[in-house]
Write a structure and sequence with these properties.
CATH architecture of the largest domain: 3-Layer(aba) Sandwich
Order of helices and strands: EHEHEHHEHHHEHEHHHEEE
Strand order of the largest sheet: 1-4-3-2-5-6
CATH topology of the largest domain: Rossmann fold
CATH superfamily of the largest domain: HUPs
Radius of gyration: 19 Å
Largest sheet: 6 strands, parallel
Shape: globular
Helix content: 25-40%
Strand content: 15-25%
CATH class of the largest domain: Alpha Beta
Number of helices: 11
Distance between the termini: 46 Å
Number of domains: 2
Number of strands: 9
């Protein structure tokens, strides 16, 4: 496993491999790795000649400075996990290497970044787009792997690739969950033992909402979910939305789309957790 900290070094190395016809699979991360990330690495290894993982906590995608300060960082553990799974290359730059000068690019994703996460975290997706575009330009991957837990982010990145005509195939990967249903997230490490015991209720409520879809109106189902969340004193709901899985526009009736997903964001203590589920009618 090779570890690079500098852009010129990793670009030179990867270019030498590309001239040999090697394909590159890429998994961008912010570290604090878990089994969800590992599933992406395993798929990238299986489908490409080389697997590259970046570990970089991107400051410009945090609209809340306190969230950035609290984000879990354990580079030694991350490197050990990547070595165990057989990752070929780690790119671990620092802030000055990625942003030697302020980046002022502004992207227009239309309605995609105006709802849900975009509404509650203004500027977040612009920061995501900036760092992902830069990483794609550095790594020049054939395939890049993203988990569906951050489903809205996935749609933003698909839009970015189309908008910029970038020669990379985006591979969506399913949500990985703990046995009790909680979607794996780096932020789960910030939960207290008590909070961690409560957190699986989010997925349980999502699953219940999916099972009830079609038996009541969209409006009634949203009210039902809000009442279930209110019944857990430790939860504070940011949003529960039922939306088209491609445009992310809210749907008002079940017949409005053939690709519907339910999305939720909940605070548990100081930790904000998101999840989503596909709805089959």
């Amino acid at each position: 496993m090779k570890v690079f900290s500098y852009i010129l070094d990793i670009k030179e190395f990867l270019q030498s491999r590309k001239t040999l016809g090697h394909t590159i699979g890429f998994v961008p991360t912010m570290g604090a790795l878990h089994e969800g990330h590992i599933s992406l690495i395993e798929r990238a290894r299986h489908e490409n000649d080389l697997c590259v993982c970046s570990v970089f906590v991107n400051p410009i995608q945090f609209n809340n400075p306190e969230d950035f300060k609290r984000y879990p960082v354990d580079k030694e553990k991350d490197m050990a996990m990547l070595a165990d799974v057989g990752c070929d290359i780690i790119f671990m730059p620092d802030h000055n290497e990625m942003y030697p000068e302020p980046v002022l690019d502004v992207y227009d994703f239309g309605a995609l970044d105006q709802v849900m996460e975009g509404k509650f975290r203004p500027g977040h997706f612009n920061g995501v787009a900036i760092v992902v575009k830069k990483l794609f330009e550095i790594i020049e991957p054939d395939n890049a792997y993203f988990g569906e837990k951050d489903y809205q982010q996935l749609q933003i990145i698909l839009s970015l690739v189309r908008m910029m005509n970038m020669p990379v195939n985006i591979v969506p990967c399913p949500i990985i969950r703990d046995p009790d249903g909680l979607a794996l997230s780096s932020r789960n490490a910030l939960l207290s033992e008590h909070e961690r015991s409560i957190a699986p209720a989010i997925a349980a409520i999502l699953n219940e909402s999916a099972s009830l879809a079609g038996t009541m109106s969209v409006t009634a189902l949203k009210s039902f979910v809000r009442s279930k969340i209110r019944a857990v004193p430790e939860f504070r709901l940011d949003y529960f939305e039922i939306a088209d899985g491609t445009t992310l526009r809210p749907v008002k009736v079940w017949a409005a789309s053939e690709n519907i997903r339910a999305f939720i964001a909940v605070y548990l203590g100081k930790v904000r957790l998101i999840d989503n589920i596909k709805i089959f009618l």
